[in-house]
Every structure is written in C-alpha cells, then in structure tokens.
Amino acid sequence: MDATGNGSERRGRKARRTRDTLARHAFELVLERGLRGVTVEEIAQAADVDRRTFSRYFPNKECAVLDAVRGDGDRINRALRARPAAEPPLTAYRRAVLDWLDDPEAEPWHLRPRFFDLLVMAEEEPTLYAAFHHIRVDAQEESVAVLAARLAVDARQDLRPAVAVAAGAGALLAAQAAWVRSGRPAALPEFVVHAFDALSADLLEPRQGGPAPHSTTEESTPS
C-alpha cells in the first residue's frame, strides 16, 4: 500500500478514536450529572478537544451519549445477513436479535455496564428518547433492505420485508420498555423472548371459547 493509503488509514483510526472518546465521556458525564446537567462544551473539554471538533462528529449531546446504540443496530443487521436463507423473514429477524443478545463480545444492552441506567433516563428525557428513536429507525431501514435482498424483492413494491421488520422491531421495543420498567437489569433476553412469542395467532384471531369480537351494533336496553 502506498503512503497515501497509510495516511488515510491513520486519519481514519484517529477519527474513530476521537469519536469513541467523545461518546465515552458523554455517556459517563450524563449518567453522573443527568442530561440537563452536562453541556457539549464540558463533553468536549473532557475529551480534550474543542467545541468545533465535537460538532464534526455529533449534532448534539444526545447523539454522543447514544453513539454505541448505532453500533448495536449494525450488529443485529450483520446477524440478520448471516441467518440461513430458508428462514422466514420474521423468524430470521427474531433469531438475529437473539444472536446479538447471546454474544458477550457484542456487549448487548443487559451486559453493558450502566446501559440499563441510560435507558431508564431516556424514558424520562424526551430529547434523549427522540435521539434513540431516530437511531432505531435507521437500523430498521437497513433491516428492511437486508430482508428484501434475502427475498429478492423490491421493498417499495413488496411489503413483506417492511412488515416483518415493523413487527420484530415492535416486539424488541416492547421488550425494552418492559425491561426498563422491571428494574431487573439482567432480564432483557427473557423479555425479548416473551415479546416475540406474543407475535402469534392470538393477536390476530380470538382464542377458542374466548370473548366475541367487539360489535359496533348498539344493543337495545331493556325497559
């Protein structure tokens, strides 16, 4: 490789280190003081860079705090690409999520120190939750593209990839919300399995002997 290539690689590694350092300090400071108790300038100072450098990597402190979450979406999508081609789309998505949760090297949320505390905070901080939602949507769009490629379809015309991802991501979101409310930091895999198990015919059709579907016909009132 020529000198130009080596220089480009060095710059790339330096940029990655700077981004990771900013994200790490943002994470630590926000957990220590709360989102509103930390400024962008303080994060930059802790990382030994200036405010302008911070802005090259992140538009705001919320994105810096949640930078690792974007990597989690990438990990799930890598696992999704690796699933056997014969698996139905929703099954593949479910198992990709479980593969991520079972991989300690990927540091899934329940194994990452203090990440549970951050998501608890996100439930109470609208701007942090909004940033988390934006990252999640980006990951879901990539998941749709992955499933469309597996099915050899155009996702703009065939809704199966988008519907499968919406269902799977909704199950993951429900599991996350229940996990945060539970106060049990180690229990995320349990909630994820339960949420995906809930994606069954019971949600689409009444159970045998269950209550009749709601009727909009007004019943007469006995006189």
From TrEMBL:
Source species: Streptomyces halstedii
Pfam families named in the record: TetR_C_14 (PF17754), TetR_N (PF00440)
Name of protein: TetR family transcriptional regulator
Compositional bias (Polar residues): 214-223
Annotated region of DNA binding: 39-58
Chain positions covered by the region annotation Disordered: 204-223
Stored Gene3D superfamilies: Homeodomain-like, Tetracycline Repressor, domain 2
Signal peptide coordinates: none
Keywords noted in UniProt: DNA-binding, Transcription, Transcription regulation
Record domain HTH tetR-type: where: 16-76
Entry keyword Transcription: yes
